[in-house]
């Protein structure tokens, strides 16, 4: 009676093939995942920008102007701190918000990308009192960055 020898275990070649397949899949999946994260963070930033814009409109309704209240105090001191970074309440901000171009009738909100969001294809985002949307990156449309 002869015993047949069966291979048990994995050969080095088989292991290398599996590692190569995993590496190829990871090289395809990781950039897509990072792009999805940037897109989600951009949506959070835009949401806070719109909320700050609504806050500015309420301020205008109460004071008749964007730049200062009825007592002459500047609007910057009145803006709630949670509206100056996005996402709200997070330990790590991906956008810092600021209000500029402040006059009696105008304002521009700028969301500056920071931390991991700094590499976003849309760059910094802007929103004016008229609802005009903008971005600092070139080569992309407003529709691509403001969805």
Concise structural overview:
By secondary structure, this protein is α+β, with helices and mostly antiparallel strands. It is built from two helices and five strands.
Explain what this protein looks like in three dimensions.
The chain has 147 residues and is α+β, with helices and mostly antiparallel strands. 38% of the residues lie in helices and 14% in strands. It contains two helices and five strands; from the N terminus they run αβββββα. A hairpin with a 7-residue loop joins strand 2 and strand 3 (108-113).
Q: Which key terms come to mind for this protein?
A:
5 strands, alpha+beta, 147 residues, 2 helices, 38% helix, 5-stranded antiparallel sheet
Please describe the biggest sheet, giving its number of strands, its sense, and whether it closes into a barrel: 5 strands, antiparallel
Order of helices and strands: HEEEEEH
Helix content: 25-40%
**Unreliable stretches, pLDDT < 50, 5 or more residues?**
none
For the CA atoms, what is the radius of gyration?
Answer: 25 Å
